[in-house]
Amino acid sequence: xxxxxRTITVLLxxxxxxxxxxxxxxxxxxxxxxRQLGWSNTDTAIAxxxxxxxxxxxxAWAGMALPRLGPRKLALWGSALFSLGYLIAALAxxxxxxLLFYLGYGVIGGAGIGFGYVTPVATVAKWFPDRKGLATxxxxxxxxxxxxxxxxxxxxxxxxxxxxxxxxxxxxxxxIFAAIxxxxxxxxxxxxxxxxxxxxxxxxxxxxxGADHPRFVRRCLRSRExxxxxxxxxxxxxxxxxxxxxxxxxxxxxxxxxxxxxxxLVLAEYGAMxxxxxxxxxxxxxxxxxxxxxxxxxxxVFRILLASQMVVFAILMTERDPWIFSALVCYILLCxxxxxxxxxxxxxxxxxSKNMSAIYGAMLTAWAAAGIVGPLYVGYYKDVYxxxxxxxxxLIGMLILGLGLIFSFLLDAERIRLAxxxxxxxxxxxxxxxxxxx
Length: 438
What we know:
By secondary structure, the protein is an all-alpha fold. It has helices spanning 6-20, 26-37, 41-69, 71-94, 98-127, 132-162, 166-186, 216-222, 224-244, 247-258, 264-296, 298-316, 322-351, 356-363, 365-384, 389-408, 413-418, 423-429. The chain is globular and about 65 Å long. The N and C termini lie far apart (45 Å).
């Protein structure tokens, strides 16, 4: 296969993430599905929740399998499953089969995203050990920006061309994504064994002693640090994804209260615009917070993310100005993306880069769990308490963020950033028998 330089690898990996990140434009279709097929908000929330759950579980498996299978094979699998999921979803929409839609868009498509998501992130972390915060921030930025390109360019174009024929739209999406993803996947590869960062680059952090031991990953996943970081990640995602899954309809509710005379089609356009703009913030947040974490530390970044969002969620409970509402939603997406940009480097800082893909993949199960919790409680409140759904949803989000902030103070930022464990200490920490010679 063709060997490509690391700068081109970043572009390829970002291109993959642009396509997979279109999942965050889900609320573009959510309103159409409710209107055209008569599905409830809970029905559509389950579809999105299954997608994110499948994504997280598949990413956990892919992280473990990546060292054995390599990035090219996993990226190809992810591309094929993601595209196939859209084609099966098109068939489900043609026959109005909710269960088949769950299988296609949710299980199969979500698994494809999981295989595809973890591969570019872990790959660029290996190519850029000297600038891991910046490199992974650029790649995961693509995942956030993908929803912008989808909601403002591709999806509206297909809606117009097909006269809102949902089965036809999903069919074309499957074909288009396959045509882009497969060629990109064929060019993705790990750095050669003799790879070294360019002269003058910052040195990569040393690997923890004992990282080659077969028990290392298992012990990492049971460690206090992993559990706390998982919980922090889960709480940040749960709050953000609850907004992502229904941001269009939530804005339409707020704007409808502000101006009851607005036509539903105009409200839908406002909702689509919010998806697009907030997606840009999602993408930019991944770059901004990733860079900032290189300077002030990963723990400090997560504390800022959680604390500031608590304030924003509290304001959103009663805010009824649609412009202010939209601006605050954009900030939530900025912080949501920041969590994903910071986490890969966080994993490397704490557990080293050698087993990064396996540990990071396991960390993404927090995404899977949050993908079920966040959308479902919003869908439930919109169905059962439509007049008070906005207040209840943001109140729960604020409480979730508060729990994450509390757990963040169980981590010692300085110890994680500066610790250089001894050989015996590292072996003891991960439960590896200490040789007699030590």
